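To whoever is on call:

I kicked off a structure prediction for a single chain this morning and the downstream step that reads the tokens threw a length-mismatch warning. I double-checked the sequence; it's 378 residues and nothing unusual in it as far as I can see. Pasting both halves so you can look.
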Amino acid sequence: MRKITFLVCVASFISFTQFPDTFAADAPSQEIKEARGVWLHLTDFSTNAAQGKLEVRQAVERFAKANFNLIMPWVLSEYVAALTDTNYLSAAPTAAWDALGELVREAHQRGIQVHIWYSFTYYKSPRSPEFNPKHGGNPGWAARSLGDFKAEKNSMTDVCPLHPEARQWELKLIESLLERYPQVSGIHIEEPGFGYPQSCVCELSRSVFKNMHGRELADMIDSPESEDFRCIGTTEFIRQLRGRLQHRKPQPVFSVNGGPHWRGDRRLGRDWKHWAELGWLDYYASQNYSANFGTFSSYTQTNLNDMKSHCPVFVGIGVKWSGGETALPVILRQVEEARKLGAKGVLFFSAKGITEEHLAALKNGPFKTSATFPLLRP
């Protein structure tokens, strides 16, 4: 009943706002089709153009030699703005020599796919171009948590996707990247929802929720109705982005990432299971970061059971992240466990934590034979 009610709510909101192959590593005689990817930050590279370009080339070569076939560079809206506006270079200094363009070119030459890794909601700041009228932005698009609302402030760390104009702004930015870098193979959306619980209670959200439910959103922020409501804007953005990508030739691969537990993510508007059921995702990347092998295995089983046959899953392995790091022997076991459980690929977070020792162990172990990126759609 909840699912039916939610889909009805989505349809009502759209009307209201008038929205203009399996691992085969154990069969060396056959072609191996699996994703072997890495999340990478452009800030890993030097701000000096000559040195930075050399570092990009060396990084791509390292991963190519270790039989990786996918790199996902983290791109902020500040980076895109800095390509044409020097006022943003302090926030994205590698844009001065276009680190992303260099990475795309080097990877393409070595047969490695590049999927741009971008967040349309989270990882913003008051200086983000989304909130800058000179870049077509609007500070009124900023999401507000319940805490900020009660304190009568706005941290401006998120964009509220309920705003149709904000969604169009983000869609235009993503399409501009695909136009600028035609060799990009995919779009990978980071944690597609809010960064904090009890968001968003901006003016538009409060107004629409009251029209739909006849009650104040702030008073029902943790209710099932609020959870469904929180997913409306994110769902509409994902729907529209998927539609735009489908009209591009060749069609870019489309994916999102998040945690291993859909129910928890959904409370933040990250409704990836429903999007997979609707056939909108080419793959889901589950951030199953844990230094404990048993926990990793449990996360992976949970996620694969949730997704079933709806969508391929690439399993994220945490090499080194804000919550800790995983020992190399455990990483190798996690790769094999993901394969055994039926994942279609593995992704490592992040490039900066991957040493020559890691690459050698992968090349001499689970990545000994090269692999082709899997075909994700007919």
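Update from on-call: the warning came from a stale cache, not from the record. Cleared it. Sanity check on the structure: DSSP finds 13 helices and ten strands in the chain.
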